[in-house]
Amino acid sequence: MMLPIVTLRDKNSVLRTRTAEAARADDPAVQKLIDDMIVTMYEKDGIGLAAPQVNRSYRISVLCPYPERFEEYREKKNDALVIINPVIVRHSLFKEDGEEGCLSVPEIFGVVRRWKSVTVAYSDREGAKKTVQASGLLARCLQHEIDHLDGILFVDRTKKLYHVPKL
Ligand SMILES: [Zn+2]
Questions:
Q1: Which of 48, 83, 137, 156 has an alpha carbon within 20 to 30 A of 66's alpha carbon?
Q2: What's the CATH fold of domain 28-163?
Q3: From ligand 1's centre to the CA of 125, what distance in Å?
Q4: pTM surpassing 0.85?
């Protein structure tokens, strides 16, 4: 089921709230939410989506596991990297600049400095403890999605913003 995405304009949403609640994989409501978030992410052409973006205060994000192969994953619709209670446990020495956008900040893009690579510890949707090591676009996406769980948007981390109107 597609879920409505909240944007910066929705003043009464949890988008800007730090998510304190640790999500439990054995909660059926959490499993349903994850399924709906995956459908919504691919339907909206996003490479990542965090629970606060659908106005749910859970520490859960879903991501396209290979953002460079987004088209292929969008076709499948159900294959996503699901991270519950994620924590960055290691990162590279250096950061790099890259362009970002966000489904919750429509038509705005900006350059954000992020760690070049990160290792993230998380629980998967079966409740198993895992880690993922990533660089490039996936590393950027992980940092962006984890920020969402703390109520932080990419616009908070950039000084260069661009407005690109949707045609
Ligand atoms: Zn976002």
A1: 156
A2: Peptide Deformylase (3.90.45)
A3: 21
A4: yes
Ion ligand 1 neighbours (CB, 5 A) are: 102
pLDDT tens across 50-61, in order? 999 999 999 999
Domains of the chain: which residue ranges? 28-163
Q: Do 31 and 48 meet the contact criterion of CB atoms below 8 Å apart?
A: no
Q: Is residue 72 flagged as an active site residue? A: no
What residues have CB less than 8 Å from 136, skipping those under 6 apart?
A: 68
Total residues belonging to the chain: 167
For a pLDDT cut of 90, what percent of the chain falls above it?
84
CA distances from 93 to 23, 72, 108, 123 (A): 31, 32, 29, 25
Q: Tell how far the Cα of 138 is from the centroid of ligand 1, in angstroms.
A: 13
Q: How far is the CA of 145 from the centre of ligand 1 (A)?
A: 6
